[in-house]
From TrEMBL:
GO terms for cellular component: peroxisome. Residues 30-145 form the NYN domain. This is NYN domain-containing protein. InterPro entries: Marf1 (IPR024768), NYN (IPR021139). It comes from Noccaea caerulescens. Residues 274-287 have a biased composition (Acidic residues).
């Protein structure tokens, strides 16, 4: 059955409801994908404690295989000190150019292609689209964090809205309640990847320099409607990195407003029809 982390109260682990590892799950690899743009580290939480806390929690539940934690999102908008703290504790950094669904879905699908089952997968995000994808993924992989199997008739958004949000909010509550521990890292090598430029970076300084560079910002403008024209204008004006990043921020804010409007409309529809749910073709989204 499910094991709640309060079962390990002596270690302060009250993060979330998860099943204890079965014999088949105990020694296989576990991959945690953390949508950090939608689930950011609050100012009152020490970022260097997140990775070690997740490792202790999963270890306590019997997940003894290799563990990989990847923070994915628009990392140029995450404070540098947060990124440094995460990478210093062995969390991989994966930058995506936009908050459109396809940015993270593409990464998920690429991971699936590179990691044949069996494997444990945990996704921390708030996007509804991932519920549908996780439903299919769970046919071959062990999905951690969903209280019940994904069932559109029972709860159309059970993974992203019930489990995904619950995971992050309860993780933060546990971190705040837990006595502070040393920010111990891991011996595994941290990776740095920019999916917008399809580029592996070597080292934290090289990575952060890249995602804040003029060339990178110009490339990322191309991912937004109207961005190509804006990029051409920036080149013609010979704008510096700061000006181009400001242009890029404008496109991202517009996309954020669109997402908020979509979510408001979704909530309205759900009030009128509890079983309403948008049908997503996530494979087409990721193309």
């Amino acid at each position: 059955g499910f094991v709640h982390f309060t079962s390990f109260s002596s270690q302060g682990l009250t993060m979330m409801d998860l099943r204890a590892a079965t014999k088949r799950q105990a020694d296989i690899a576990t991959w945690v994908l953390w949508d950090i743009s939608r689930c950011p580290v609050p100012a009152d939480v020490d970022a260097c404690r997140v990775g070690p806390f997740i490792r202790r929690a999963l270890k306590s539940l019997g997940y003894n295989g290799d563990l990989t934690i990847t923070a994915i999102g628009i990392l140029s908008q995450v404070p540098i000190d947060v990124l440094r703290a995460l990478s210093s504790t062995g969390i991989n950094l994966h930058h995506v150019p936009t908050m459109y669904n396809k940015s993270i879905l593409t990464s998920l699908i690429m991971w699936e292609m590179d990691n044949s089952p069996p494997a444990n997968v945990m996704l921390i995000s708030l996007q509804r689209i991932f519920g549908q994808y996780i439903a299919d993924l769970s046919e071959e992989y062990y999905v951690l964090g969903s209280k019940v199997p994904y069932d559109r008739k029972l709860e159309p958004t059970v993974f992203a809205r019930r489990a995904g949000c619950f995971l992050w909010e309860s993780l933060l509550a546990s971190l705040r309640a837990e006595a502070k521990k040393d920010c111990s890292g891991t011996t595994s090598k941290t990776t740095f990847y920019c999916s917008g430029c399809c580029l592996d970076l070597f080292g934290f300084e090289s990575f952060t320099k890249h995602i804040l560079s003029k060339e990178h910002a110009l490339n990322e403008l191309d991912y937004y409607p109207g961005g190509v024209e804006a990029g051409n204008e920036s080149r013609a004006r010979k704008e510096d990195a700061t000006a181009i990043l400001a242009r890029l921020q404008g496109f991202r804010q517009a996309r954020r407003r669109e997402e908020e409007e979509e979510e408001a409309n979704y909530k309205k529809q759900r009030l009128e029809d509890p079983y309403y749910d948008d049908e997503y073709d996530y494979e087409a989204e990721a193309e």
